[in-house]
Amino acid sequence: MNYKLVAGNSLTALSAVVLAASLWNAPPAQAKNDESQDSQWSEWSAIGAGYIARRREPPGIDLPATQRRLTDTQSRGYDKQSAQTSSVKTQLRSLDVMASAATTTTVTTAKLWFYTTEEGLHRVSVAELALRTGKPEQRIRNLAMQGKISLTNERNPVPWHFDEESDSLWFAARKYDSFHTDADAYHFALNNQSALPMTQGDAAASAVPGAATPFEDSLHFEEEPDFLFSTGPVAAEPDADYWFWDYLYGGYKDQIEVSLQIPHPAASGTARISISLRGWTDLEAGDEHEVYARLNGVDIGSSLVWDGFDAAQLVASFDQGLLDPSGANTLTLHNAYAPGTHPGQYLDAIDISYSRLPQAEAGALWLHKVAAGTQRVDGFSSEQLVVIESPRGNAVLRNDALIESDGLGGWSASFDTIAGADYLVTERGSTWLATIAPDFPSALASFKNTTDYLIIAPREFSATAQALANYRGNRFSLVKVVWLDDIYDQFSMGREDPAAVTAFMRRVKAAWRLAPSVVTIIGNGSLDHKNRMGYADSFVPVSMVSTPWAIAASDDRLLANDGRNADRFAIGRIPITSDQQGLAYLDKLIAYESGNYGNERYRAVLVADNPDDAGDFHANSDQLAEQLLVTAGFDQVSKLYHPDQKVRAALTLTSTWETGYVSYDGHGSSGQVGDGREKFITASDAVLLQNSSHPIFSALTCAAGDYSWPGTPSLAGALVLNPGGGAVAALAPTGLSLDEDAHRLGTAFVDSLFVGINTIGDALLDAKAQTAGSISDFMPNVYSIVGEPAIFAR
């Protein structure tokens, strides 16, 4: 919808009503029960304080997350997961690799990336390294035995070991977890530039069994369930974590209970817990939030008091005799509040440090900062054990461990330790397999690069990217495709991170011999780039900006499109989820630019919602009509004004879209224009249009271009990507919008597009420059082009 900027209490009341994790759409309580239900919305439910609500639900939400992929993303090679294996499974994997090599063509590169998602010892077979690099297996073995292999993480050398028995390379990986990915990246090269082979320890076993001395361990707990993302409370923090675990709501949900598996606690010691929270209401004067914790039914620490939407940490130390020896523990969080108030808090994550007994879990244990002496580690099911000292430092493969049976079918390892060192002890069969990907050579930081039209895309959309590059090469002299993985490789050390794209574009502007005037992003982005919900529909990540109500996706920020006007460039995103979809859009684009259209290109349709406190949408559209007729050379302007005309009936007709320009001014959301009852046109309606003349669509509303909702297209995206109708491109916002500001921006956009005869991307760039200082600072960042930005309107 379109908003007026209102006082803080009204905004925070909105946040309280809208349990933003579910992005509820809350109508008055007297909403009609017989209203037809859109299949993309849940049933109405009570959320407290006299309100009912429903949430927009993407398709397949009733299925397990592993089964929700969209039709276009079913075959996507998305995961970069560590796979647990045994020696038998390793052999099978090697056989599978060799078998696939006989029937398919494998891309070979001299350098590789290893991806891991688990803590522990990882392995990569020589057979797979040979297949991926194109080098003979014996050549790789020889280099490994000579210590001439480089493995790095964050550009730092990582110790590795060549294990002749399994014919594989071993290395120890730590758990990595960021908001955007849980896959860490290790760079592999067949050279000795950063070689760090593990030192082989003495072969003589220790004669004396060690003691099972406890060590300090740390555990991180965090769950991110469906729909528990909330962009409202972090409105002032565009880089904040907006996905939460659970919530408290005063008077309606006063307790959270979570299970914490804390394995093998020592009988004595002091444990420490840190509970990450955030307020999601700001309704009362002074500190309105108070939360306290109980572990296994016992209060720990003091209650935490804070105010507003801030993040907060409830930290407590406690006697770890409180921990259940079985490892199964229950933490409950409780809120306290004054009568008649309803404060809300989110649980984000929990961190615990405690004294842990050296007992293996799942055949492995990583000990941290141990005491000096002889350490014993119990709990193994095999005598085939590997002990590594300082696994991420100057690693030593310890061959002197004393391996003993416990007489009950289990095994232990004893070894001498150095004070403060880490030790990794694992069964040979409990190693992990890393995912392997090629490292394609690129030189994106070089000042020698030149382009006037830049395409950023993942390699899985190579057909679309190359076809667009070839087509735009007819108009631009230097068209360059840059692959997203290459950006990650050079600017975030192989990890998926939107900041890498931003750093790359800053380098482009600062150092390239010729920087682009146009940048086209190919690929959808999602709030769920980590794929928590299973739709696998985030290809090019989103970067967020602050607005008065919530953070919103912004390709201007993603591409560092800031600074002086002379440094800026036209931007557009084609939010596809498959190459097939992208190629169909290019056919539509080419037909638009080469077609022999008639008078429809000089006709416009202006749609307006009924006037209300948010804006006089009719008056705005009247002004736009005069501008189109008097200065922009249009022959005809048709008006569809609610409630004077039957807007939905007309706007969902194919014939309405047989025109050159369609503009909407009024309330809207990501999947429709109009409110929840009006639904003047929805994304599901848009895909049914069959118009042969494809207009440019301008959405002066809220969020109609928000492609970031997991599993669900935006209205603008559905119009633009409809291969048989809809629009060729759209101007639309990704977040909430102010009507007066939107009208000014839209007026300047029309002037530049139709009078100045600029491309749609340049017209938006020009409109943002013209309105600088006269509209709210956040507005230019949320308005963007959906589609290819180098399109001329006629």
List the keywords.
794 residues, Rossmann fold, alpha+beta, 20% helix, 29% strand, 16 helices, 6-stranded mixed sheet, 5-stranded mixed sheet
Write a brief structural summary.
With 794 residues, this protein is of the alpha+beta class.
Summarize the structure in words.
This protein has about 800 residues and is an alpha+beta fold. Helices cover about 20% and strands about 30% of the residues. Strands 39-38-40-44-45-47 form a six-stranded mixed beta sheet, sandwiched between helices. Strands 5-30-7-11-10 form a five-stranded mixed beta sheet. It has a five-stranded antiparallel beta sheet with strand order 9-8-12-6-31, with no helix packed on it. Strand 10 and strand 11 form a beta hairpin. Helix 5 runs parallel beside helix 9, helix 10 runs parallel beside helix 14 and helix 14 packs across helix 15.
Please summarize the sheet with the most strands.
Answer: 6 strands, mixed
What is the strand arrangement across the widest sheet?
39-38-40-44-45-47
Determine Rg (CA atoms, Å).
30 Å
Number of strands: 47
Q: Helix/strand/pairing class, anyone?
A: alpha+beta
The protein's oligomeric status is single chain
Determine the mean pLDDT.
Answer: 90
Would you identify the CATH architecture of the domain at 597-786? 3-Layer(aba) Sandwich
In angstroms, what separates the terminal alpha carbons?
30 Å
Q: Any low-confidence stretches, pLDDT <50, length ≥5?
A: 4-39, 86-104
- Count of alpha/pi helices: 16
Please give the share of residues in helix. 10-25%
Would you tell me which CATH topology of the domain at 597-786 applies? Rossmann fold
What is the molecular shape? globular
